[in-house]
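User: Please predict the structure of the protein below. I'd like the answer in structure-token form so I can feed it into my own downstream comparison script.

Assistant: Understood. Taking the following sequence of 273 residues as input:
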Amino acid sequence: MAKDSPSQQRPAGRGMQHASREINPNLADLPMLMCSFLSGLVDAASFNAAAVFVSMQTGNTVFIALGAASLPAGDARRWLRALVSVASFLTGCTFFASMSRLLGPLRRSTLFASFFLQTLLLVVCASLAQTNVAPAFGIANVDPFAHVDLQEKQARDDQWAVYLTVALLAFQSSGQIVLSRALGLGEIPSVVLTSLYCDLVSDPNVLQSSNTKRNRRALSVVLFMIGGIASGWLQRTVVGVRGVLWIAAGIKLVIAFGWLVWKGKSKEGADAS
């Protein structure tokens, strides 16, 4: 019996074929730049909530080192939250890299699965904050001039749900840098700025009118900063940290479904639907 022509294939078959096709990486820098914004958004929230980062692990490594001297003063267990973040980030990198190699790093289905999982983890974290199970992440209407009771804050930060939230946020953020490597966009790691600063100013062609990598690096820095600023002001309103996490989840969900409709690449390398 002859095989059905492409036009005669069942919708499910066409859908699977569409999902398994690799994307055309042209313009894939756009979602990665949005991930830079998300890193600023979420890192500013996690630092204000639990005094650790979930994307930029250099700072967390410093906190771990300070922990050897029982510092910083008033938050001697910050090193443990930092260690949880670093360990979860490394675990996430291993997971997402293995998943990409196994399923095909540029397939629509792989990209969708990666970002949908990241979205689910953000939803879990936002839910823990919303229900005040992780009280450090449930703060809102933050007054930057209010007196902070350090003992009360430390007790709030040391609850198990706070450690879990930090772990899940760090795990999901690792998927971004893994994707930047898969797309060949090392100039937009989206979770770190130190190397971007160096590469930006040390580029011998930094002043050329047409320099795509410079533009990407500069935009990544700017968007990260905008994300952090937006996060800070949102935390000063009723939106709070929990609202920031819901916003991040919503944006990642849009990116996830965006991969499913991203222009594909045919076997010959030409654009395909």
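That's the full token string. The chain is about 65% helix and 0% strand.
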